[in-house]
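Posted in: Structural Biology > Protein-Ligand Complexes

Title: Requesting predicted complex, GMT in pocket

I'd be grateful if someone could produce the 3D structure tokens for the following input. Sequence and ligand are given below.
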Amino acid sequence: MNIGMICYPTYGGSGVVATELGKGLAIKGHKVHFMSYAKPMRLNEFQANIMYHEVAVNAYPLFEYPPYDLALASNIVDLVKYENLDLIHVHYAIPHATSAYLAKQILGEAGRHIPLVTTLHGTDITIVGSSPSYLPVVNFSINQSDGVTAVSEYLRDETYSRFEINKEIRVVPNFVDVEHFQHSDKAHFKKAICPDGEFILAHVSNFRKVKRVEDTVKLFRKVLDAGIKAKLLLVGDGPERETVEQLCRELGTCKHTLMLGKQEKIEEILSIADLFLLPSGSETFGLAALEAMSCSVPVISSNIGGLPELNIHGETGYLCELGDVDKMAEHAIEVLTNEELRKKLSVNARKRAEEFEISKIVEQYENYYEEVKESVERKIKDGEKPAVV
Ligand code: GMT
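-- Reply #1 --
Done. Output follows.
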């Protein structure tokens, strides 16, 4: 198939899922055309069958906010026509599903019915998408997609309860390349960071409020107070970084904390971690936790959203009530002081991650594309205008 893949290029799960999916499809012989306003972060190497088309947004003195969504729609129309795309797959509903709908309408006028698949990822439904500023448009754009997927059962159910959806939403979970994300011996790296054999607690996120990075610092303080020698690795960057740094100063954890900023080789950092912390206030799946588990790192997370569909309490790590830093610290201390438990959780975490192995999920998307394409073709044959009002 010749697929148009649209995503955000920045650090964040939806862009990572789109990029890894595109790479997986390209390996299987599909042609994948990425469209975004910048090159997606994980699209960093040449790969056969992958093309990248940067969306040009022209500035104009009238535009305080240049209309990216319109430029994207034009780009989609252009690529469908000239690259002869078979299907468009957008990741994160806002504004991608709406731009793609517009492109579909324009192409439909010329008798070209391009199937559109929208994957819902998270805050496009749970936070931003549900706000009155966007809700009617998001609702409409989801219903106008030919196929809709959500990354967890939780997200599917939330979408049904927050919006008026008139179609089936298929759950296709996040996935991980278990060959790439696996524990490797990085003893020299660990020694450099932890000369006294300290344990390593890691957190990876885009430092938005919803990630509650401050909770990781608070629970880390409690781990240190329990007399455990440990280091906290904070990976990523975002709006809350300064607040987090300030909290480290207030709680006196700075000299035990490494703010590593945005990193590319996350698997190397995860390879030296003993525990992964994800105390998020909203998380539809928790891709960062899956990547940690794939590197055999147990996870302590909140029990919200889609996290219980991934992290199994007492088996692959622990699930705690949102904001219950005491309980999270209690579990962390238990894991760090009990080698047998740590090993058990680590083995189970890896096994659980293998259930989300990339090839299984790429195949699910391939089958879904075929299904959607066939249903659009059937509708055209039956004289219906598919997904166009
Ligand atoms: O929805 C977001 O906040 C952003 C989104 C992204 O683009 O990073 O993250 C969501 O999608 C990921 C990939 O499907 C999920 O693993 C994350 O759990 C989810 N984040 C939230 O729900 C906060």
